[in-house]
Design a protein that fits this description.
Radius of gyration: 24 Å
Number of domains: 2
Structural class: mainly alpha
Shape: elongated
Helix content: over 70%
Number of strands: 2
Distance between the termini: 29 Å
Order of helices and strands: HHHHEHHE
């Protein structure tokens, strides 16, 4: 999933660059200087479609949402979420295991809730037939790709919560705790 999220971000970077360059060229070809210097060339380039990518904001919005959900499973399974630990170092490993279990169970429940709500939202958008403004692609498509990432993240989070329960039972660490510590 993280590779798919990375590929999506790379595609969005290329899309943004192409759109910005097209927008800049469009503005340049509309200047009085360019129209007086080469009026036929300016008209030809503008007529050929040089300009911003139509619907770039819609594509970026849907793509970034997918990328966020695509990275969640990796962050969850590696314990790489950002965290601030003020008192954890002062507590015993047993207490920290209990806290980690509680956090991971809550995280699994939240991710499951997000996946369920995305599914409900996707069904609602499918029924309403709502589309984006410029590209007019069905909004449920964006919900569907986000739901894929959210479902995988929820499955991984449930797995992590089960492993944390096994850690409590065995009184030893099996998986890494949060690695994204900020102190």
């Amino acid at each position: 999933m993280a590779y798919l999220g990375g590929a999506m971000l790379l595609a969005l970077i290329v899309l943004t660059c192409v759109s910005v360059i097209g927008r800049s060229l469009n503005g340049f070809f509309h200047t009085d200087f360019m129209e007086s210097l080469a009026p036929g060339f300016a008209a030809w380039t503008l007529d050929s479609g040089v300009g911003p990518v139509n619907g770039d904001f819609e594509l970026i919005e849907a793509g970034v949402a997918f990328a966020i959900f695509a990275f969640l499973p990796l962050c969850q399974i590696t314990g790489s979420h950002a965290s601030v630990e003020l008192l954890a170092r002062a507590m015993s490993p047993a207490v920290n295991r209990i806290l980690q279990f509680i956090i991971d169970v809550l995280f699994a429940l939240v991710l499951l809730l997000i996946a369920v709500q995305l599914f409900s939202g996707m069904q609602s958008k499918m029924r309403s037939g709502q589309t984006t403004l410029l590209l007019e692609f069905p909004i449920w498509w964006a919900y569907a790709v986000c739901l894929t990432g959210a479902a995988v993240a929820a499955i991984v989070a449930i797995y992590i919560a089960i492993v944390r329960a096994a850690e409590l039972a065995a009184s030893k660490a099996i998986l890494p705790s949060d690695q994204g510590e900020l102190s």
